Amino acid sequence: MLTLKNIVFGAFCTIGLSGCATFKSLNADVPLFERVFVYSGTRLNWAGLENDDATIRKFKTKPPNLPLVDLPFSFALDSVFLPLSISAEIFH
């Protein structure tokens, strides 16, 4: 029987295997005035799904290996970081 603890553990393992787009996009070597903060991981995953090379070059990092798997988790993490992302976007 699957418990909530096992499901959460499995989700974190899946994210770890595919690479988290939120952390990849926020940790990329991009100058502050060019950086995208608001929902950056979700945007990177979506660009990976759509094969949008222009957007991927803007992030200067590669999307995760499994962007469809990482998309809901990046959306959730980007939503948690949203207040910080908005303030960083405004003041940088």
Structure characterization notes:
With 92 residues, the protein is mostly helical. It has one domain (4-91). It has helices at 4-18, 21-26, 40-50, 53-59, 67-80, 82-91.
Largest sheet: none
Quantity of strands, as a count = 0
Radius of gyration: 14 Å
Which consecutive residue ranges, at least 5 long each, have pLDDT under 50?
A: none
Query: Kindly state the mean pLDDT as a whole number?
Result: 84
Continuous helix count: 6
The SSE order reads HHHHHH
Structural class determined from secondary elements: mainly alpha
Approximately how much helix is present in the residues? Answer: 55-70%
Classify the beta-strand content into a percent band.
Answer: under 5%
Outline:
globular
Number of domains: 1
Beginning-to-end CA distance, first to last residue: 48 Å
Task: Indicate the topology.
Elements: H1 4-18, H2 21-26, H3 40-50, H4 53-59, H5 67-80, H6 82-91
Helix pairs in contact: 1-5, 3-4, 3-5
Task: Summarize, please.
The chain is mostly helical and 92 residues long. 68% of the residues lie in helices and 0% in strands.
